[in-house]
Amino acid sequence: MTQAATIDTTDVAPTRAGGDAKVTLGRVTAGEWVKFRSLRSTWYALIGGLAVAVALGYLFSLLRATHAGTGPHAFGVEDPIRVSMRGLMLAQLPIGVLGVLFITGEYATGMIRASLSAAPGRWNVLVGKSIVLTVITFVLGTITCLAAFLLGQAALNTHHYGVSLGATGSWRAIIGGGIYLTLVALLGLGCGFLIRSTGGAIATLFGLLLVLPLLGEALPTSWADHINQYLPMNAGTQILGTLQDPHNLAPWVGTGVFALWTAAALIGGVTLLMRRDA
Questions:
Q1: What SS3 class is residue 274?
Q2: For residue 262, how many other CB atoms are within 10 A of its CB?
Q3: Burial of residue 220 (number of CB atoms within 10 Å: 0-12, 13-18, 19+)
Q4: Model confidence pLDDT, tens digit, residues 7-53
Q5: Angle at CA 38, nearest 5°, toward 34 and 40?
Q6: Cα angle at 82 between 150 and 169, to 5 degrees?
Q7: I need a surface site. Which of 81, 171, 205, 241 has the fewest CB within 10 A?
Q8: Nearest by Cα to 254 from 236, 233, 274
Q9: What is the pTM of this model?
């Protein structure tokens, strides 16, 4: 993220020196897009994460189809759609890091002072970054989920376990996968605004996504059945498959719960952004 120091800030945000350049959300968002596309590290994290989703989805599907067997002891593939989406479990990590770096990189280089000076309202900086991150991640993430589905089902079909795009839950999983990755990126952005440190924000993000479910599994069963379904990753990933555990939330309800976690991080981030010095 060190490239941030070399960006020409006159192209990033409108100047108020002449008094005739009005600061609008559209101008700030355009400036955030310039920052995003100017940094090689953001594209490395984004493309790398999405490539992992496709590659692992295909690999998991191929291995599952191969070991499912076709003889008398065959156990089959109960949820072929979820199998092809398994790559998202690893791909979410670089996508979340991308969201963190989109803001903490500016704090690391001091560029955040220029951004906030050009947009004194401050809140529009977070909103502008959120818009850019949402559009890019959702579009590319949904395309990636479509590719992971098609390749994964092709691999499963080598042993006749695959399903088509017309199968129940296929498009929901594809579009839901794009939404899930987008929410992960925005959660990373919110953590970045809250903590302002790259290491601290990434640790917090990984803790929310990966550590909380592990801690939840250590709870007594009577507690775990009620608590675990509301944890970020557990709730958000219910949309990636067709078979539903009765102890988990319904697909869209789970996505809504994950969206609330993300909204809480962003609201906390913008609150601190408005109150403390850059």
A1: helix
A2: 24
A3: exposed
A4: 444 444 444 444 445 778 888 999 899 989 888 878 888 898 999 99
A5: 150
A6: 75
A7: 171
A8: 236
A9: 0.88
